[in-house]
Amino acid sequence: MKQLTIQATLVSSGRAVVTDPNHIVLLRSRGFYGYVPDEEHGTLDQQNEHQRQLDTDEESLEECDTLEDSATPVTSKCTECKQLFLTDVEILFLFHGLGCLDIVLPDSEQSETDSDLTNPLRLWYYLCSVSRLPSPPVHPTQARTELPQFIHLERDLLRRYAAYLYYRSRGWVVRPGLALGGVHFLLYAQGPAWRHAAFGVVVDRAEMDGQQMTCAALAVHVRVVHSVGKRLILCRVSLPDVVNYKDCPWDAIREATVVETLVDHWNPSCR
Fold first, then answer.
1. In the chain, what are the domain boundaries?
2. Would you state the CATH architecture of domain 6-35+81-263?
3. What percent of the chain has pLDDT over 70?
């Protein structure tokens, strides 16, 4: 049986758009991939009006049945979407992890030294670059030398991708944290069509080099996440040297180490 391939077009350094209605329905119904900007804002408004009880492993089957019966099927809304946007980590997961994404890259003139760049390396350059599209792609090894920001953006993407795979592999539905602004991901037990997210995830570097997230910044995330009835997970990722993965830098996540910490909100007025 031939595997279905999702068609997408890269529109910026970290976003791709899917326009085929059948592909949109498939992505939304099987994994809740992608986002619609207006829909994300609507989700936040609903959460502010009514906070559902947090998802926990101790929920009774009766509570789960009630939520499932009252939920709106995801296909009823996604059929109305004309465009579905995929984030950079979703692009990597569908392209490298599942092998079901055919992504169209922007046309650009390549130099003779870069003519041997494969599509995966071109895609990696665009995802880690702040250059406006289309721009001539270069090999990641060359970009690390000539573009000061490239190394920082590359390692940031690897951390978020490692965290994304970590939670996906544990059965969570991982969604972009656009509705809450600062967090990287929202974790759903079943998906946004059935219940609200239980946790917000902030991804940080594990290296003690003075560039980790400050306590003040972390406190802001905790307050925002708690205000909409969620809990915050601080996910610190340690990466190997990307230089060892010259032709496949995305494989560096195989040696990544993930350490997660649940950061709770404490109200001194409550006992």
1. 6-35+81-263
2. 3-Layer(aba) Sandwich (3.40)
3. 78
Residues 132, 12: Cα–Cα separation, whole Å: 7
Q: Three-state secondary structure along 37-78?
A: HHHHHHHHHHHHHCCCCCCCCCCCHHHHHHHHHHCCCCHHHH
Instruction: Give the 3-state secondary structure of 10-26.
Output: EEECCEEEECCHHHHHH
Place of tokens 């279905």: 4
What letter would DSSP give residue 79?
T
Beta bridge partners of 201: 185, 233
Summarised one tens digit per residue, pLDDT across range 103-149 is 999 876 555 445 557 889 999 999 998 777 767 888 898 999 988 89
What mean pLDDT do residues 179-195 have? 86
* Closest among 89, 62, 78 to 20, alpha carbons compared: 78
CB 191 within 8 A of CB 143: no
Residue 191 in tokens: 């998906």
149 membership: H or E segment, kind and range: helix 148-168
Pairing state between β 6-12 and 101-104: parallel
